[in-house]
């Protein structure tokens, strides 16, 4: 069945490969990127090969939370429903770790912006919709002060691993509490490690290696988005290194710690909106 699928960070790496696959499968694909020129180029490239599906593009720099809500409004204006949201956009190495809103950019882009986007888009989801969140094998206990942007100077890996645990924690929390906190018709929420050291710009810049075939990541994202194996996977973590559902970092299974991370993200969103 033809689905409407929004993929963030579609302009490079795993997101780009995934977008190409989804277009070939004739789905309606909503592309997100932060660079207007890269996004326009991608849309033109995909328009040339698409057969049946519809394409749309949305620009937003996720290091600014205001731009996330502006983008969400455009998505809501242009679409009656959303079958799948793939929260793929992410950063590892950056020249400036602080955002204009006083956050650490790794937390902002990798954990807080996708939470904000998912919440804003709730009116488009029903209980069969899926939110696929990009986790990682790199997961480390979240320092709440770093999440808040109060503690600065975390090195690349430390901040990245904490931000990836934060998205894994809120994924399970959202899945478990979708009825109470997010409305009866909340979506299935799944965290996915797409595979380690896949050959993207992020991996080349971070580790100086070419990395493995990006289609390893694109294939698992398409399965998580579309396949029946993931129908009952809400709240679970899929580890594509071991090719199975697996236990995430123990903190992600701790309801108290996960609720605290969500409470802090909510407080950041409230603060930035004020
Ligand atoms: N590659 C791996 O081995 C691996 C392993 C585990 C998890 N992951 C996760 O997989 C996801 C995709 O990573 P990748 O390896 O494909 O990296 P990538 O090639 O660097 O792609 C990242 C995507 O995110 C976008 N992005 C970066 N900063 C942004 C911002 N401030 N606002 C909006 N969009 C932004 C990029 O836009 P531009 O095109 O403008 O740069 C690009 O489209 C990430 O969440 C990453 O953490 C990757």
Describe this structure in words.
By secondary structure, the chain is an alpha/beta fold. The chain has a single domain (4-273), classed as Rossmann fold. Helices cover 44% and strands 13% of the residues. The chain has nine helices and eight strands. Strands 3-2-1-4-5-6-7-8 form an eight-stranded mixed sheet, sandwiched between helices. Strand 2 (28-33), helix 2 (36-49) and strand 3 form a beta-alpha-beta unit. Helix 1 packs across helix 8, helix 3 runs parallel beside helix 4 and helix 4 runs parallel beside helix 6. The longest helix has 21 residues, at 156-176. The N and C termini lie far apart (41 Å). The model has no long low-confidence stretch (mean pLDDT 96). The structure holds NADP nicotinamide-adenine-dinucleotide phosphate (NAP). Residues 9, 11-15, 33-35, 38, 61-63, 88-91, 109, 134, 136, 193-194, 196-198, 200-203 line the site of NADP nicotinamide-adenine-dinucleotide phosphate.
């Amino acid at each position: 069945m033809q689905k409407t699928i929004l993929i963030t960070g579609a302009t490079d790496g795993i997101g780009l490969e995934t977008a190409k696959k989804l277009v070939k499968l004739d789905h309606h694909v909503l592309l997100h990127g932060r660079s207007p020129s890269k996004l326009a180029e991608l849309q033109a490239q995909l328009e040339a090969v698409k057969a049946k599906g519809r394409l749309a593009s949305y620009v937003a720099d996720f290091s600014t939370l205001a731009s996330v809500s502006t983008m969400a409004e455009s998505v809501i204006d242009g679409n009656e429903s959303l079958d799948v949201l793939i929260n793929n956009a992410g950063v590892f190495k950056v020249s400036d770790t602080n955002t204009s809103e006083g956050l650490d950019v790794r937390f902002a882009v990798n954990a807080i912006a996708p939470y904000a986007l998912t919440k804003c888009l709730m009116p488009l989801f029903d209980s069969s919709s899926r939110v696929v969140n990009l986790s990682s094998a790199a997961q480390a206990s979240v320092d709440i002060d770093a999440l808040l942007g109060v503690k600065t100077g975390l090195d690349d890996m430390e901040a990245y691993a904490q931000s990836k645990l934060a998205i894994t924690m809120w994924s399970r929390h959202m899945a478990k509490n979708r009825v109470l906190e997010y409305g009866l018709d909340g979506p299935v929420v799944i965290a996915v490690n797409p595979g380690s050291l896949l050959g993207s710009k992020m991996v080349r810049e971070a580790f100086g290696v070419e990395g493995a075939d990006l289609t390893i990541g694109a294939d698992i994202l398409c399965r998580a988005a579309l396949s029946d194996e993931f129908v009952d996977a809400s709240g679970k973590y899929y580890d594509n290194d071991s090719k199975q559902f697996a236990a995430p970092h123990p903190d992600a299974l701790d309801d108290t710690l996960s609720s605290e991370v969500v409470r802090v993200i909510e407080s950041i969103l409230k603060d930035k909106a004020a």
